[in-house]
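for the recovery benchmark. tokens below, seq after
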């Protein structure tokens, strides 16, 4: 999934590109770039249990959403 990196309230957060509109200074990562970063994360933390949650990042990300990419299209 494509994503955008954006600074919100002085914090760098990652956003779903499908759920947000482009803003000046966003860094856009296409599917391949996102995959490469996810693969690196997997290599770095392979075998470890990830228990931390970035509550402030999640709160800020929610303030940037303009649509929900998980909603199914309604049949017409």
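predicted aa per position
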């Amino acid at each position: 999934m494509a994503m955008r990196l954006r600074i919100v309230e002085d914090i760098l957060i990652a956003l779903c590109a499908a759920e947000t509109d482009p803003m000046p200074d966003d860094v856009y990562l296409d599917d391949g770039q996102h995959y490469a970063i996810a693969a690196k994360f997997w290599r770095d933390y392979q075998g470890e249990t990830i228990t931390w949650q970035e509550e402030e990042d999640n709160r800020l990300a929610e303030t940037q959403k303009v649509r929900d990419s998980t909603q199914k299209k309604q049949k017409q």
